[in-house]
């Protein structure tokens, strides 16, 4: 829920409650005051009738009252109490039934007790109340609407710098050296936010730069001696006549050097992936890449008599081409290396996942298979291939799964989590 | 061909020079930015091997300079930085190729030869070796006028051997050249043997002399003897 929405909701809810309560109080109070006034008028009439009776010793004619209706009734015995009440009476002027207010009182005339009912129309006061109520309601609606509009427009405008900062942060890339721009605003909080965000971005960029230069330096410093060893070996090989024994020693050194440089490159690659230092992000036709990779591995497959079957659907995924190549390479060489002679490899690619299953000796690595340097005893690999594969999957939000199923090793890369 | 090696690591420089010298190649070298800068300004080379991390300056600046001077020298970057950014930056600036340290000298030689061939023959890309003629751009091989049909891998292998004639080339280097160094198949290069055997057979059948020799089980040597 957006802040403005939340705020609006609270605001309008309280406004409505407060307005309803004031409306009710308003109605009750006005009603009370008007009834009070009517009652006072009725009491004045009663007083006039009493005075008339005391002075003239007869009852005044009902017709002489214009605004009120008066009726008399002789009482015998029971004397009712003086009371005010709401009635509905027939108004001869308007020729219709109208709500009225009556006062029932008693007049003593020559030892006779006469009940007098004075009735006055309530229509005017009712109308007044209705108008007042309508005006109040109208004002309420207008007030609520204007509140809503003000909130919408003013709040939106007020929050605009915030959203521009937010967008800047969303599109922030550590490799690009731009600052996070925001709309100029006079609001201190937003200015401070922008300042802090930029300070943070600067620190992040600084760390990134240091990390990058460290990786570069480490790589350089270690690769150079390795390159020297390698080139010296190549040179040594060109000199004349070695015995077979020396030859096999040289081969061992070559092997170790090659392994060392691959190991080092793999570790650097892992560090780079972990720190998201591989920027090249593009659309990749995975089917084509897999087909190319199959061709590349053809000799290796033939050597072990492996049968490769493919079921591929053309799909496009977004990742680095370089990493996609490494991912496929690792999965392919894994499937080849841990296979048995005359075995098979099956590759299936659809919209959701890439599955590579291969025959092979049963291993019981299960949980540790994606750990660094975890490998089966007879493996010739570095034990980093699957760790790198997993890291690449993590980077792009893919999920990689391994299970062993009726003598088959099955690796599945799900493209969505 | 005339080559300039710009490399600050003395031991590596010596190996490269030793490997390239001979067969009518002239090699010069520079070990720091200033010396390299001077040589680049004064002379022309068929190919310049450029190390990116140099004392006294950034290697990429030299590359920019070569392009500013509108020289036709081929440039091969050799770098210890296995960084995609640098690779792309280097190729964008006009380098012909990019090789990451550590590399096999045979691979370096093959790449340099390819660059020089491309520069010098402008599409008419032909390697001559005794009775063997290889038209690299048309992928056509003739021995004494007989055409030899090779697979892609065998063809690449032959070109590789011809660039490294009279040198011992290790199986390791051959595998990396043909399948790429990301392959990580570590040590078992027996499948190379099949390719070499087929290549040798086809060349012999077409009437060439036997130039391919196995050396100590480590690798092969292509050349007279």
From TrEMBL, chain A:
InterPro entries: HATPase_C_sf, HATPase_dom, His_kinase_dom, HisK_dim/P_dom, HisK_dim/P_sf, TCS_sensor_his_kinase
Catalytic function, reaction form: ATP + protein L-histidine = ADP + protein N-phospho-L-histidine
A Pfam family it matches: HisKA
TM annotation in the entry: 12-34, 128-150
Enzyme class: transferase
GO cellular component: plasma membrane
Keyword flag Transit peptide: no
Stretch forming the signal peptide: none
GO molecular function: phosphorelay sensor kinase activity
SMART domains reported for this sequence: HATPase_c (SM00387), HisKA (SM00388)
Histidine kinase domain location: 217-417
Keywords: Kinase, Membrane, Phosphoprotein, Transferase, Transmembrane, Transmembrane helix
Enzyme Commission number(s): 2.7.13.3
Protein's UniProt name: histidine kinase
Originating species: Pedobacter psychrodurus
UniProtKB/TrEMBL annotation, chain B:
Domain OmpR/PhoB-type span(s) in chain numbering: 124-224
Keyword Mitochondrion carried by entry: no
DNA-binding region: 124-224
One GO cellular component term: cytosol
Gene Ontology biological process terms, A to Z: regulation of DNA-templated transcription
Organism of origin: Pedobacter psychrodurus
4-aspartylphosphate carried by residues: 51
Domain Response regulatory: 2-116
SMART domains for the chain: REC (SM00448), Trans_reg_C (SM00862)
UniProt-listed Gene3D superfamilies: 3.40.50.2300, 6.10.250.690, Winged helix-like DNA-binding domain superfamily/Winged helix DNA-binding domain
Pfam family, one: Trans_reg_C
Keywords annotated in UniProt: DNA-binding, Phosphoprotein, Transcription, Transcription regulation, Two-component regulatory system
GO molecular function, one term: phosphorelay response regulator activity
Keyword S-adenosyl-L-methionine belongs to the record: no
Protein name as annotated: Response regulator transcription factor
């Amino acid at each position: 829920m957006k802040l403005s929405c939340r705020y609006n909701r609270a605001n309008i809810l309280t406004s409505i409650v407060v307005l309803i309560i004031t409306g009710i109080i308003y109605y009750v109070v006005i009603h009370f005051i008007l009834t009070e006034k009517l009652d006072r008028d009725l009491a004045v009439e009663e007083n006039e009738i009493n005075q008339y009776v005391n002075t003239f010793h007869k009852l005044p004619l009902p017709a002489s009252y214009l605004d009120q209706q008066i009726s008399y009734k002789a009482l015998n015995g029971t004397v009712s109490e003086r009371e005010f009440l709401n009635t509905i009476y027939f108004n001869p002027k308007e020729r219709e039934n109208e709500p009225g207010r009556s006062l029932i009182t008693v007049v003593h005339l020559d030892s006779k007790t006469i009940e007098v009912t004075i009735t006055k129309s309530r229509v005017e006061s009712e109308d007044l109340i209705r108008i007042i109520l309508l005006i109040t309601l109208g004002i309420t609606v207008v007030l609520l609407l204007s509140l809503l509009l003000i909130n919408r427009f003013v709040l939106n405008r007020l929050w605009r710098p915030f959203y521009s900062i937010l967008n800047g942060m969303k599109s922030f890339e550590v490799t690009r050296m731009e600052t996070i721009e925001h709309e100029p605003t006079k609001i201190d909080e937003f200015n401070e936010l922008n300042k802090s965000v930029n300070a943070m971005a600067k620190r992040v960029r600084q760390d990134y730069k240091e990390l990058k230069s460290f990786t570069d330096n480490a790589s350089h410093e270690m690769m150079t001696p390795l390159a020297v060893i390698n080139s010296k070996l190549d040179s040594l090989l060109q000199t004349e006549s070695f015995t077979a024994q020396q030859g096999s020693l040289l081969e061992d050194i070559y092997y170790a050097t090659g392994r060392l440089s691959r190991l080092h490159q793999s570790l650097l690659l892992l560090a780079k992936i972990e720190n998201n230092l591989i920027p090249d992000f593009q659309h990749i036709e995975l089917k084509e890449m897999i087909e190319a990779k199959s061709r590349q591995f053809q000799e290796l497959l033939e050597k072990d008599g492996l049968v490769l079957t493919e079921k591929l659907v053309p799909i496009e995924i977004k990742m680095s081409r370089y990493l996609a190549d490494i991912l496929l390479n690792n999965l392919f060489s894994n499937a080849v290396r841990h296979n048995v002679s005359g075995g098979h490899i099956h590759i299936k690619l659809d919209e959701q996942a890439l599955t590579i299953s291969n025959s092979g000796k049963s291993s019981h690595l299960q949980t540790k298979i994606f750990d660094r340097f975890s490998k089966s005893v007879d493996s010739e690999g570095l034990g980093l291939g699957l760790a790198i594969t997993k890291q690449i999957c993590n980077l792009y939000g893919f999920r990689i799964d391994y299970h062993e199923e009726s003598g088959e090793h099955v690796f599945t890369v799900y493209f969505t989590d | 061909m005339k080559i300039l090696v710009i490399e600050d690591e003395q031991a590596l420089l010596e190996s490269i020079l030793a490997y390239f010298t001979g067969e009518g190649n002239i090699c010069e070298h520079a070990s720091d930015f200033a010396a390299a800068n001077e040589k680049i300004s004064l002379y022309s080379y068929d190919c310049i091997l450029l190390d990116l991390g140099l004392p006294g300056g950034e290697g990429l600046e030299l590359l920019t300079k070569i392009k500013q001077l509108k020289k036709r020298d081929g440039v091969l970057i050799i770098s210890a930085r296995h960084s995609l950014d640098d690779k792309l930056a280097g190729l964008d600036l006009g380098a012909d190729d990019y090789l990451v340290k550590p590399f096999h000298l045979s691979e370096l030689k093959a790449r340099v030869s390819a660059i020089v061939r491309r520069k010098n023959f402008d599409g008419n890309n032909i390697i001559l070796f005794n009775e063997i003629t290889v038209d690299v751009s048309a992928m056509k091989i003739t021995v004494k006028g007989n055409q030899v049909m090779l697979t892609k891998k065998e063809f690449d292998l032959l070109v590789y051997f011809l660039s490294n004639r009279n040198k011992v080339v290790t199986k390791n280097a051959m595998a990396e050249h043909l399948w790429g160094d990301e392959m990580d198949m570590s040590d078992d290069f027996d499948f190379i043997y099949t390719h070499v055997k087929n290549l040798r057979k086809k060349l012999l059948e077409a009437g060439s002399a036997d130039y391919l020799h196995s050396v100590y089980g480590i690798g092969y040597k292509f050349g007279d003897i």
